[in-house]
Design goal:
Helices cover about 40% and strands about 15% of the residues. It is of the alpha/beta class. The chain folds into two domains: about 230 residues, TIM Barrel (Alpha-Beta Barrel), CATH 3.20.20.70; about 60 residues, no CATH class. It binds ligand TUI.
């Protein structure tokens, strides 16, 4: 299976499944589990200072079997982005994904050390621009995703990006089972990236309160904060978002909203304060009802694919 898949061939991985590079919870534990299971695990650099990232990378290397690849997701809004890129280059990270901005200026240096550069985009325009400067593949992420998002949903975004570029496309946003993988293939993507599904894994270090709230989530449990700041983020509606959204609607100044957001993700992921913190998660959380080992998550999705393809055929035969 997947012997001819463009992403499996490009990265030398068994399954065309990426783990989203989630800030604070995309740790060595999760990334190594995904890579060891045959997918592509990613350390989410988020706002990490460079020395902490280097330690996490070294830990991940020590937890990975043999020479399986893993990646680092560089969050381009980080105040440490330049130093983070230096660490990534120094550690010769085989796959670098980026988010929340345009990584164009960093592409040449990354390619020089042989890293595959795979930016996350939320628009066709940026996908085209990044293909021109040498991106090896493109992750097209719809606004169903958790955390920082664009404006277009996965279903319209992926085929438009597929049509616009010649490099392989990875679909992200709203994907968590075999149906999602089949749908991504139907749209022309070669692989999927999942964040929410891997939050509900045994290896994810998110606080139990965080996971329990995600388990309880329904289809309409998430809201989008930060639209007025120009960096919208999808999170579970709670006491924090009610205050935030009220202030946003009342026209609170950007600095005040920024201040409210500082530390809010860590408060939820690590302190377990899911009332006063940001519980970033995608809309597909409404469908998820179990915490499983990473290996089982990946193998169940792959094993379920033939039945979905049969069901698709039965609808037009
Ligand atoms: O980056 C993400 N998701 C994230 S990053 C993050 S860290 C954070 N923490 C606290 C507050 C805010 C963020 C949490 N979730 N996903 C990838 C992604 N990138 N989604 C959308 C984009 C994107 C948006 C606009 C990429 C490029 C872009 O273009 C801007 C430009 O310069 O053209």
């Amino acid at each position: 299976m997947f012997e001819n898949n463009a992403i499996c061939k490009l990265l030398n991985i068994k399954y065309p499944i990426f783990q989203g590079g989630m800030a604070w919870i995309g740790t060595a534990e999760l990334a190594s589990a995904v890579s060891n299971a045959g997918g592509l695990g990613l350390i989410g650099a988020g706002h990490m200072p460079p020395d902490i990232l280097r330690k996490e990378i070294q830990k991940c290397k020590s937890m990975i079997d043999g020479s399986k690849p893993f990646g680092v997701n560089v969050m381009l809004m980080s105040p440490f982005v330049k130093e983070v890129m230096e660490v990534v280059i120094d550690e010769k990270i085989p796959v670098v994904t980026t988010g929340a901005g345009n990584p164009g200026e960093y592409v040449p240096a990354l390619k020089e050390i042989g890293s595959k550069v795979i930016p996350v985009v939320a628009s066709v325009a940026l996908a085209k621009r990044l293909e021109r400067v040498g991106a090896d593949a493109i992750i097209a992420e719809g606004m169903e995703s958790g955390g920082h998002i664009g404006e277009i949903a996965t279903l319209p975004l992926v085929p438009q990006v597929v049509d616009a570029v010649d490099v392989p496309v990875i679909a992200a946003g709203g994907i968590a089972d075999s149906r999602g993988l089949a749908a991504a293939f139907a749209l022309g993507a070669s692989a999927v990236q999942m964040g929410t599904r891997f939050v509900l894994s045994e290896e994810c270090i998110a606080h139990p309160n965080y996971k329990n709230l995600v388990l309880k989530a329904k289809d309409r449990s998430t809201v989008v904060t930060g639209r007025t700041l120009g960096h919208p983020a999808r999170v579970i509606a709670n006491k924090f978002t009610r205050t935030y959204l009220e202030m946003e609607a009342a026209g609170a100044p950007a600095e005040e909203l920024e201040k409210l957001g500082v530390g809010s993700l860590h408060r939820a992921t690590h302190e377990g304060d899911v009332d006063n913190g940001s519980v970033m998660i995608g809309q597909i959380s409404g469908m998820l009802e179990d915490i499983k080992p990473v290996k089982q998550i990946i193998e169940d999705i792959v094993a379920g694919l033939p039945k979905i393809v049969e069901e698709i055929q039965s609808r037009y035969n």
